[in-house]
Design a protein that fits this description.
The structure holds three protein chains of three kinds. Chain B is mainly alpha-helical. Chain B is built from 22 helices and seven strands. In chain B, α13 links the parallel β1 and β2. Chain B starts with 6 loop residues before the first helix and ends in a 25-residue tail after the last helix. Chain C has two domains: about 300 residues, Transmembrane di-heme cytochromes, Chain C (Fumarate Reductase Cytochrome B subunit, Up-down Bundle); about 25 residues, no CATH class. Classes of the chains: A mainly alpha, B mainly alpha, C mainly alpha. Chains B and C meet through α3, α4, α6, α9 and α11 of B and α2, β1, β2, α8 and α9 of C.
Chain lengths: ~130, ~525, ~325
């Protein structure tokens, strides 16, 4: 016998699962994601710069923050020398978030988009949102 | 015939194929003792098979019909459209190798083409060439090759070295069953007149005379008369079975091997003694005098043609249901094929034991039950008076037949019986019984005498396990429920494990059975002194 | 040959997009849009076609491989999962087969020791197979974070489990290590075990090399040569919302990863990888052993020429009468 019913049901399930991403996004717009650096602190900088170049920060910030944590917590070292030769205090709250005082529009923007949940805020307290 | 080497010599094996060899480059070599004689033209002609002529496998010229390649490929296309199993099994093997060392022929022989996966690749390579695009265009790179005379000889040699035991299928993650592929290969070779004498002879016999051995009606009766005389000598009771009797309640069908040679005849005596003691209203048939089906080792159509006689005879005689005797492949056919081919058996009733009143719902459609199901039910209901101590000279182990184990699942019924009719029983190791049981090495029509080398190799894994329990527990009797086993395991025990003999389960039953009005028995069914009765105690 | 050729085929498949997007970034539209769409179409249509083709052939006989006690007398315990007699029991058997590779779990190794065959436990193939398939599934599902705007919490939980040990940043996924280990094991056994090497075809090595390359490129991309991940998601969402875009500056290694996956998708329906669909259609596993209880129908069953009782009696009437057998015609 053929069991056509069961085979067709199985193929419908397969088709549904294989095309699920298309079904879930049917008719949805593809939002453009750009983290905002529009904060009073950044705007006040004569030359806008981070501890490292933008491209590096974009892809490696998680690793940098991870290293910073280890430096402080394990080695007691609070000084970071950037590739530009400048010294920076190693501190999420007093260095990073001092300029990027807009967590929601900066950090969360991409993290939410990528469904990433960094565990920074499990210990650290997010600063008050500021906007220019 | 080449003389069989000593067991230790036969076991000089290497399971590792040559590392740099490609199996497609290994030429086929028909080794003496590993194949059966070719079919005789007259036997093929009886069943109207094509290319009926005498032929000899070792000769270069196989006297093949014109355009035999076309015939095979056309048949292949046809079977692919008829059998999902064949089609799926051609496509989905990932060659994980789980089956490789599960085949009894590989374990006892070491020939890499007896690894089930490679046996199937013999066929798949041709399938890929003619039925898939990758094979068509990439050829050998895609594992494809052309069908030619060498390939055909390789097919014939190796697909008549597979006993369709399905052990590989148990271990395959997709259940790929080499038996399905072997069956197809045998369909194709039969279209070219390439059967073996040992299969085509019984097929022709069974078609014309009703049984594989070619026993004509009076010969069947003579054979049974002889057994009745023996039973009278042993028990003092004269049994009077009936033949071709209309209006009997039950038709009894068993493999004809049980009517012909020891130790099968003792099993047949066992059935008759049991049925007599119960006063069962049953009849033998000389027309449907074969439970087994060598057509099954030939082609689907031939199997159906032979099997048709059972229902036809049941209908003619007007019986209520059928009991089938102890046989292996017979029960694969009865369980998985008979009703589909030749049913519906709506002219009969659902089997009901006249002794216990048990209704056998598990045979509600086929109306045919296995004799061990019938007997186990009798014992469970306390309907038999048994003296197991009469079997006390026997230390028994039980061999599951491939087909009843993996094509049916009849595992505990015979064990229950054995436990009730014998006191000394030991199982073989777990890896070698039940669904993992080993073939006797001579199924699917391989039980000839000219292929002893391959038979003994194939029988080795079973014998090896028997040897284990013989050495450990002193086992001296190998029980089974298969007529081919009774014939072939005797030979394999003599070769590998001398001192162990072979018996059917119902021989053990009859030995233990206390029959009404029997005299004090001095001997068992084999005429040997019962324990405590002989001079050797 | 059967090992080397697939290896170099995969090397070429890696180099092709690598050079393509490095030399001329205009080719990104080819690797990022055209090939993925083609691959998905070929995969879905090809898969449906192959299964439908199998489905067109009937199952003429009820041929389950029974691996346990049948249903018979009420007091004999049936092995319902190994020898099912109802549809629900078959579903149970199939679930065991598909989810935990029941049959492969039986595997053992035959060896000749001290002049006799012995059967040792051999669970590594089962373990590696299970590890490979499950980690592949886990990784596949994890990738949904590139294909939906709001990730379902189930998948977030799976990620959490997968990165449970919170090693490094980005967090290390255990499945990445498992799939690498498992595929490597499967590859090594194919090369080093003489029996497996003997039965292997080029078509057995190619998917292993391909999947290994996919896993390695993915791991490199996540942990070592990071790409513009937000842009990757924009590309992915663009594809699945049918508004394809090519964001700038993603990084060549992403296109390597994507292209290899596309090759896998396109190769899938034409290869042994179809065992994914085929396992469900295997008659020795997906049928109930109930052919004595319910008549199984073969759609192409046809009448055959049999030797009837009448013909038999004609052949043997005299002998039958002489032996005292009843006959239909005197």
């Amino acid at each position: 016998m053929y069991n056509s019913g069961k085979i067709i049901a199985g193929l419908v399930v397969f088709f549904f699962l294989a095309t699920l991403p298309f079904l879930l996004n049917f008719g949805k717009a593809n939002a453009k994601i750009e983290p905002s650096i529009d904060t009073p602190e950044i705007n006040a900088m004569p030359k806008k710069h981070c501890v490292e170049p933008k491209a590096f920060m974009r892809s490696e910030h998680m690793q940098l923050l991870n290293n910073w944590r280890d430096q402080v917590v394990r080695n007691g070292n609070r000084i970071y020398v950037g590739s530009d030769g400048n010294e920076y205090t190693i501190s999420l709250q007093n260095t990073c978030m001092k300029c990027h005082s807009n967590k929601k529009k900066f950090c969360d923007k991409c993290h939410n988009y990528m469904a990433v949940k960094p565990y920074c805020w499990g210990c650290h307290i997010a600063p008050k949102e500021k906007e220019a | 015939m080449a003389k069989l080497p000593k067991p230790e010599e036969l076991l000089q094996l290497n399971y590792n194929p040559p590392p740099s060899e490609d199996w497609m480059d290994r030429p086929v070599e028909l080794k003496q003792g590993n194949f059966c004689w070719g079919a005789k033209g007259k036997n093929l002609a009886v069943v109207e098979f094509p290319n009926a002529r005498d032929w000899t496998p070792v000769e270069a010229d196989w006297k093949l019909p014109k355009d035999w390649e076309g015939t095979v490929l056309e048949a292949m296309a046809d079977r692919l459209s008829k059998y999902r199993s064949f089609k799926v099994f051609m496509d989905i093997c990932v060659r994980c190798g789980a089956c490789a060392d599960k085949c009894h022929f590989f374990i006892g022989g070491g020939d890499p083409k007896n690894m089930p996966v490679l046996r199937a690749e013999l066929m798949r390579s041709v399938y890929r060439k003619y039925f898939t695009n990758s094979g068509k265009y990439l050829g050998r790179l895609a594992g494809a090759r052309e069908l030619n005379l060498n390939v055909l000889k390789e097919w014939w040699y190796y697909f008549y070295q597979c006993t369709e035991c399905r052990r590989c299928s148990v271990f395959c993650p997709y259940g790929i069953d080499t038996a399905e592929i072997t069956m197809m290969a045998r369909e194709f070779t039969n279209l070219l007149g390439l059967n073996t004498d040992w299969i085509s002879g019984p097929v022709a016999n069974c078609y014309m005379k009703g049984n594989h051995l070619g026993l004509e009606p009076h010969a069947i009766m003579n054979s049974i008369e002889g057994m009745i005389d023996d039973i009278e000598t042993i028990t003092g009771i004269r049994i009077n079975p009936s033949f071709n009797r209309k209006g009997a309640e039950i038709l009894f069908v068993t493999p004809s091997g049980d009517l012909f040679a020891d130790p099968g005849t003792f099993t047949a005596m066992g059935y008759m003694m049991l049925f007599h003691e119960l006063g069962l209203d049953y009849t033998w048939s000389t027309y449907a005098s074969e439970g087994g089906n060598f057509g099954f080792f030939t082609s689907n159509e031939m199997a159906k043609r032979l099997n048709a006689k059972i229902y036809a005879e049941a209908k003619r005689l007007g019986v209520k249901y059928i009991i089938g005797g102890e046989c292996g492949h017979m029960w694969r056919v009865l369980n998985q094929y008979m009703d589909t081919w030749n049913g519906p058996a709506d002219f009969m009733e659902v089997p009901k034991s006249p002794i216990t009143g048990t209704v056998f719902d598990n045979a509600a459609s086929t109306k045919m039950i296995h004799v061990t199901e019938f007997t186990a039910d009798l014992i469970k209901n306390g309907k038999l008076k048994l003296d197991p101590s009469r079997n006390d000279d026997l230390v028994i182990t039980y061999h599951d037949s491939c087909n009843t184990a993996r094509g049916m699942g009849l595992l505990d019924e015979p064990r229950y019986i054995i436990h009730n009719v014998c006191n000394k029983f030991h199982e073989m190791p777990d890896n070698t019984i039940r669904e993992r049981t080993f073939c006797c090495g001579s199924g699917t029509g391989l039980n000839a005498s000219e292929n002893m080398d391959i038979r003994m190799r194939g029988g080795y894994p079973r014998a090896n396990a028997v040897k284990h329990v013989r050495d450990k527990h002193g086992v001296n009797m190998l029980a089974n429920i298969c007529a081919i086993d009774r014939a072939t395991l005797s030979a394999s025990m003599d070769y590998w494990v001398p001192g162990v003999r072979v018996t059917g389960v119902h021989e053990l039953v009859a030995n233990a059975l206390l029959m009404t009005g029997e005299k004090e028995r001095e001997t068992n069914l084999r005429g040997e002194p019962l324990p405590g009765k002989g001079g050797n105690e | 040959m059967k090992t080397v050729l697939p290896f170099f085929a995969v090397v070429i498949l890696v180099l092709f997009p690598l050079f393509g997007v490095t030399v001329a970034h205009q080719t990104e539209i080819f690797f990022g849009v055209i090939v993925p769409y083609a691959a998905m179409a070929i995969f879905v249509v090809g898969f449906l076609y192959r299964v439908a083709k199998w489905g067109k052939s009937p199952v003429p006989f009820c041929i389950p491989t029974t691996c346990g006690q049948q249903k018979s007398l009420p007091w004999i315990k049936q092995d319902k999962l190994e020898n099912p007699s109802t549809t629900m029991q078959v579903v149970g058997r199939m679930l065991l087969e598909v989810l935990v590779f029941r049959s492969l779990f039986r595997n053992m190794k035959t060896e000749m020791k001290e002049g006799k065959a012995v059967y040792g436990s051999e669970k590594l193939l089962w373990l590696a197979g299970l590890a490979f398939h499950w980690s592949f599934l886990f990784i596949f599902v994890r990738h949904y974070r590139f294909f939906v705007q709001d990730l379902p919490s189930v998948i977030q939980m799976m990620e959490g489990v997968d990165s449970f040990f919170q090693i490094g940043a980005p967090l290390f996924y255990m499945t990445d290590a498992v799939i690498l280990g498992a595929v490597t094991f499967l590859l090594i056994r194919r090369v080093y075990l003489p029996q497996i090497r003997y039965i292997s075809l080029a078509a057995d090595f190619f998917p292993l090399f391909l999947i290994l390359a996919i896993a390695i490129s993915g791991i490199l991309m996540r942990y070592f040569f990071k790409v513009h991940i937000v842009a990757v998601k924009q590309l992915a969402l663009g594809l699945v919302s049918l508004n394809p875009i090519i964001p700038e500056g993603i990084g060549a290694i992403f296109y390597v990863h994507l292209f290899l996956i596309c090759v896998l998708l396109m190769y899938f329906p034409f290869s042994k990888l179809m065992h994914m669909g085929g396992v469900f259609l295997s008659p020795t596993r997906n049928m109930a052993n109930n052919s004595r209880i319910v008549r199984y129908i073969n759609p192409w069953n046809y009448p055959v020429h049999v030797h009837t009782y009448e013909e038999y009696e004609n052949d043997f009437r005299d002998k039958m009468k002489k032996a005292g057998l009843p006959v239909e015609k005197e």
